[in-house]
């Protein structure tokens, strides 16, 4: 049975949704050495990561030595992409925290809430943020894992297994969507609206009433930036009020999400794990697979029930026989 295990401070999300996991690449999982009894199959436990030799540390040191001249201001010109991951930032005066999106994204606000006074570093893709932490370009990453309306962010569950990072905390961020447009544009002038697919889904009722065609893009702030740069007169964007201020857009409507309780839970990721204490509750996340057979899921869940361990969330992907559990312990 393969498993991935990590802990984070417990700040539960009140609403839970069913979810599925995408196929995982079994060779991309992180092999972890751990104490205790295990079956003949390998265990993949993210909390007790012990590097196999010094190859990764040597690689990181070599990367740092070879890239001392990389200018720190490069990130201000746009999101960090995969082409930047072979470069090192020289300014280490503040904690660098990676997030997915461009300036004005909700993820940027979540990163600043998780790490006040940090230097938020935009990344083009979720995977870029993971790789930036692993490559020592940034110190932390703050990435979404679950939304109270839209459910789980499947891609990041997958990436947690593919990369050697650890959950060291979580932060909840209230998402308040706005309908944005260029100055002089009225609601009746709009024909289309751009935003991230989750944001569009969270505002489905409002956008349907307005009769707008929805088009999904990589992130909410990116949509705002696009319509501002191209000075579009018949296209709006669903994004934050911060994005409206940054890109000089007009707010046509505020709080257009279908439910007033719209909260995204973000994970705080680091290269090194934390050791859970007893002074406060922690959340434990486990991902594991089971052999085919009658009652295998029942037997796995019984292990927790018999020990009075409360499960706050269970996600199953039966095609791969993969399960994700969140425990309140």
Automatic annotation (TrEMBL):
It comes from Vitis rotundifolia (Muscadine grape). SUPFAM superfamilies: ACT-like, Periplasmic binding protein-like II. Keywords: Amino-acid biosynthesis, Aromatic amino acid biosynthesis, Chloroplast, Lyase, Phenylalanine biosynthesis, Plastid, Transit peptide. GO terms for biological process: L-phenylalanine biosynthetic process. This is arogenate dehydratase. The lineage of its organism: Eukaryota, Viridiplantae, Streptophyta, Embryophyta, Tracheophyta. Pathway: Amino-acid biosynthesis; L-phenylalanine biosynthesis; L-phenylalanine from L-arogenate: step 1/1. It holds the Pfam family PDT. Signal peptide: none annotated. PROSITE patterns: PREPHENATE_DEHYDR_1 (PS00857), PREPHENATE_DEHYDR_3 (PS51171). Its main location: plastid. Residues 96-271 form the Prephenate dehydratase domain. It is found in: Plastid, Chloroplast stroma. It comes from the Eukaryota. It is an enzyme of class 4 (lyase). CDD domains: PBP2_Ct-PDT_like. Its EC number is 4.2.1.91. GO terms for molecular function: arogenate dehydratase activity; prephenate dehydratase activity. One of its GO terms (cellular component) is chloroplast stroma.
């Amino acid at each position: 049975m393969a498993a991935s295990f990590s802990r984070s401070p417990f700040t539960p999300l009140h609403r839970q949704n069913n979810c599925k996991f995408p196929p995982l690449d079994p060779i991309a999982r992180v092999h972890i050495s751990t104490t205790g009894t295990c079956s003949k199959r390998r265990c993949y436990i993210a909390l007790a990561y012990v590097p196999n030799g010094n190859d990764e540390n040597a690689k990181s040191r070599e990367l740092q030595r070879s890239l001392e001249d990389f200018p720190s201001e490069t990130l201000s010109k746009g999101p960090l992409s995969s082409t930047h991951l072979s470069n090192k930032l020289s300014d280490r005066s503040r904690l660098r925290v990676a997030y997915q999106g461009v300036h004005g994204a909700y993820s940027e606000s979540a990163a600043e809430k998780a790490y006040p006074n940090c230097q938020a570093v935009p990344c083009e893709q979720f995977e870029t943020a993971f790789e930036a932490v692993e490559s020592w370009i940034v110190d932390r990453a703050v990435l979404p894992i679950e939304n109270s309306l839209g459910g789980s962010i499947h891609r990041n569950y997958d990436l947690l297994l593919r990369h050697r990072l650890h959950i060291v905390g979580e932060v909840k961020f209230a998402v308040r969507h706005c309908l944005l447009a260029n100055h002089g544009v009225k609601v009746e002038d709009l024909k289309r609206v751009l935003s991230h697919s989750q944001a569009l889904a969270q505002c489905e009722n409002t956008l349907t009433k307005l009769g707008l065609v929805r088009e999904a893009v990589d992130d909410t702030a990116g949509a705002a930036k696009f319509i501002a740069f191209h000075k579009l007169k018949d296209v709006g964007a669903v994004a934050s009020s911060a994005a409206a201020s940054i890109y000089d857009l007009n707010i046509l409507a505020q709080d257009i999400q279908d439910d007033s309780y719209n909260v995204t839970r973000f994970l705080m990721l680091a290269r090194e794990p934390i050791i859970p204490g007893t002074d406060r509750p922690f959340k434990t996340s486990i991902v594991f697979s089971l052999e085919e057979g009658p009652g295998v899921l029942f037997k796995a869940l019984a292990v927790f029930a018999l020990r009075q361990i409360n499960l706050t969330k269970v996600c199953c992907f039966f095609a791969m026989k993969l399960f994700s559990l969140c425990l309140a312990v």
